[in-house]
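User: Quick sanity check before I run a bigger batch. Here is a single chain. Can you write out its predicted 3D structure?
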Amino acid sequence: MRAALVGVDFGKGDFAASLDELSQLALTAGAETITTISCKRSSPDAALFVGSGKADEIAHVVTDLALDIVIFNHALSPAQQRNLERHLKIRVIDRTSLILDIFAQRAKSHEGKVQVELAQLQHLATRLVRGWTHLERQKGGIGLRGPGETQLETDRRLLGERVKMLKAKMEKLHKQRETQRRSRGRNKTFSVSLVGYTNAGKSTLFNTLTKAGTYAANQLFATLDTTSRRLYLEGVGNIVVSDTVGFIRDLPHQLVASFRATLEETIHADLLLHVVDGSSAVKNDQIEQVNLVLKEIGADHIPQLLVWNKIDQTVLDAGSERDEYGRIARVFLSAKTGSGMDLLRSAIVEFMQENSGAESQEFGIQPSNDEVIDDII
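Assistant: Done. Predicted structure follows.
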């Protein structure tokens, strides 16, 4: 699918990095970026977001390059999206829709698929025009349409019923996770969650740390489903390590809400390993974005250990840094080469010993570093 990317520089943040990220998102979704169009504005145009002049320019590019889709690096209102599609005579999607599409492609588990569909329906409900009567097939079809009910009203009602059903499923999955967590709590198992910006190397670190076989790739949102495994650490016993979905700037609120069940592994963790791509030019901005999402899901109070990953792509050496209180605050490592992994294990043990009140207390049950606790991929 041949695509044009459109970005508007409003003078906030790193515009070039944001546009580069959109290009990666488009590639991940299966689109080929043919051209990138950018402009500067003080504020979005109410009707066309970019203004009529720039919209005309985009229309000419669409025709000249025979493009299939135009992707905006911003959230468009339903009216702006409709106006742009009429003006450009081509499909137009925004950043939110693009991320939702990637999540829909990547979801593998039943839980992941339910969460993604719920997020998509909640997003699309605001821009519903037609085309949702296929949901009738799941309810039998005959007798559904009330007397005098318009097509749009029928679609809205069917969509609402589907959302209600998906929310009921999510509640059931939520209760299952609660039961699993209570079981781990009774065993006094120390819980560690990996969090971080998408493609920071969380899954690679998870695999290196636990010798798991979780899918890891150099692409955005390679992981959507939480996977948890036990890991035995000398001196403290068993812990549970969980790999979670990556975060990204302007992560759609519908996704944050829908993935709350998955992200609750993060909320209930004893320690967060905040994995950072040490080779990224915008790593500080990415750290800030992750912390914003953690605050949104209520996990900003959990202790963090910064894990500076991908040092093999930098001039940094494996090592660790301590804060003004003498506690390890940052570990420099490469999950790919394994350099510095011993320092991370030591840092986790040190944190546990400082917070358990007993230097050699055993958490949980007998050693087993490859047992799947909650592998739902």
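The longest strand covers residues 32-40.

User: Great, the batch can go ahead then.
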